Amino acid sequence: MIKGPIMLLFLNTAQAWICILCSCKPLDSWGWAANCNLMALKEMPLLNSSIRILHLQNNNLTTVPFGALDSLTNLEEINFSNNPWHCDCSILYLKEWLEDFNKSSLEKATCATPASLNKKALSQLKGNELEGCRKPLPINCRDFFWRDFGLTFLVIIVLILAACILQCSKQLVFQAIRKQHSSEIPLLWFHDLENQKTK
Q1: Boundaries of each LRRCT domain copy (predicted)?
Q2: What does the radius of gyration of the chain's CA atoms come to, in whole angstroms?
Q3: Terminal-residue alpha carbon distance, the chain
Q4: What backbone phi and psi angles, to 5 degrees, belong to 118?
Q5: What is the 3-state secondary structure (H, E, C) of the chain?
């Protein structure tokens, strides 16, 4: 008797946790279908990895934060159409994610701004036509000079230290060999004297 209300409470709690700002219903086998259609969303809602169907069409989404869709590993269906996407460099995350997920979903999502890209499908975008992607970094020659000078100086110091270590090790080896031979020479000389006496 009590199991029914407890299960209902559990499902309602799970639904509230899985679908914040959206309407969710459990699917027959497992997972959830999240319907965020016509919710006037301006930002991506928090999404749970157990969502298998996600409808985000007809909202006011302009961008998707980098990594916001990465946790949706069980997703089978998604719809991002009819959102006023702002197609600058930050839209590349959504474009590349949809390319990996489903190319037809990519065709349905179109740019609203800037005006030069209005109604252009995300699938047709190229990085060099997006604002913010084509800005070259300013070249500061002084920074290059000091960086290269510092690296060259460091390499020279390392080479000098390596040469000093090599020279010292050669001298130590030479001294060790000379010391070893100098201790053997008196013994040989003494041995030669004894041989001469016995003759």
Answers
A1: 83-134
A2: 38
A3: 122
A4: -55, 130
A5: CCHHHHHHHHHHHHHHHHECCCEEEECCCCCEEEECCCCCCCCCCCECCCEEEEECCCCCCCCCCCCCCCCCCCCCEEECCCCCEECEHHHHHHHHHHHHHCHHHHHHCEEEECHHHCCCEHHHCCHHHCECCCCCCCCCHHHHHHHHHHHHHHHHHHHHHHHHHHHHHHHHHHHHHHHHHHHHHHHHHHHHHHHHHHC
Torsion of CA 120, 123, 129, 132, to 10 degrees: 110
- Are 80 and 94 a contacting pair, CB within 8 Å? yes
Q: How many residues does the chain have?
A: 199
Question: Within a 10 A sphere around the Cβ of 166, how many other Cβ atoms?
Answer: 10
The sign of the torsion formed by the CA atoms of 5, 16, 58, 40 equals: positive
Mean pLDDT, rounded, of the chain: 80
CA-wise closest residue to 130 among 81, 82, 95, 79: 95
Extract the tokens encoding 159: 């080479």
Closest CA to 56 of 3, 17, 98: 98
pLDDT per position as a tens digit, 3-37? 444 443 344 444 444 577 788 889 888 889 999 99
- pLDDT tens for each residue of 78-89: 999 999 999 988
